[in-house]
Amino acid sequence: MESTGEERPVSVAAGPVTLEGNLSMPEAARGVVLFAHGSGSSRHSPRNRYVARLLNEAKLATLLIDLLTSDEEASDMRTAHLRFDIDLLAERLVAATDWLTQYQDTRHFRIGYFGASTGAGAALVSAAERPQAVGAVVSRGGRPDLAGPALARARAPTLLIVGGNDFAVIELNRAALGQLRCEKRLVIVPGASHLFEEQGALDEVARLAREWFERHLIPVTHAPSSDAAV
């Protein structure tokens, strides 16, 4: 596997708290993808890091960030009260988005969101709040339905990926798809479960995400016209 560039720890202020993240900057990066996950899946998640590494190989920078502090995460593991607080998660995601738009190495990039679980709902709410900055959303086994009224306001092209064996989540994604008013697509990965743990399933997720982000985040460069005067 080729080198995917420098990974650096970053801290993002979000109201009264500070969020910890890992920013990976491949050489000649052409866009940046911000990961939004639900409770129990930190920036150290092997699945998210695997997808991020494959996106880095495609010259996309990635920011994996914990939307909850360590204390909040510990509390949520006991009570499960924060993982469904979509307004809080989206507020934190907006703060991370604003940070990317101001950070020297990423401020010129279009931003994509890669959301999983309840993080997908937060991603769509945040995308509706920052339409000028956010160019694409990808949901992996997510709950876009939790975005509620923001679904109709989201303008970023949105790809929903669901495992073929994740029956309840398939129906929730179909319902959300019907409410989206942007460019949209639902892809069901045959034989995959909620976590895409089956052989090749996560590779398919990464391939679909990479193609979606490349299509919507990376500026198109036009070759000089062959009709130019000589």
Query: Considering the protein shown, what is the CATH homologous superfamily?
Result: Alpha/Beta hydrolase fold, catalytic domain
User: What fold name goes in the CATH topology slot?
Assistant: Rossmann fold
Low-confidence runs (pLDDT<50, min 5 residues)? Answer: 225-230
Tally the structural domains. 1
Can you write the helix and strand succession as a string? EEEHEHHEHEHEHEH
Q: Which structural class fits the helix and strand makeup? A: alpha/beta
The DSSP helix count reads: 7
CATH classification, class level: Alpha Beta
Please state the overall shape, judged from the principal axes of the Cα atoms.
globular
Question: Average pLDDT value?
Answer: 90
Secondary-structure blueprint of this entry?
Layout: E1 6-14, E2 17-25, E3 32-36, H1 46-57, E4 61-65, H2 70-79, H3 86-102, E5 111-116, H4 118-129, E6 134-140, H5 150-153, E7 158-163, H6 167-179, E8 184-189, H7 201-217
Parallel strand pairs: 3-4, 3-5, 5-6, 6-7, 7-8
Antiparallel strand pairs: 1-2, 2-4
Helix pairs in contact: 1-7, 3-4
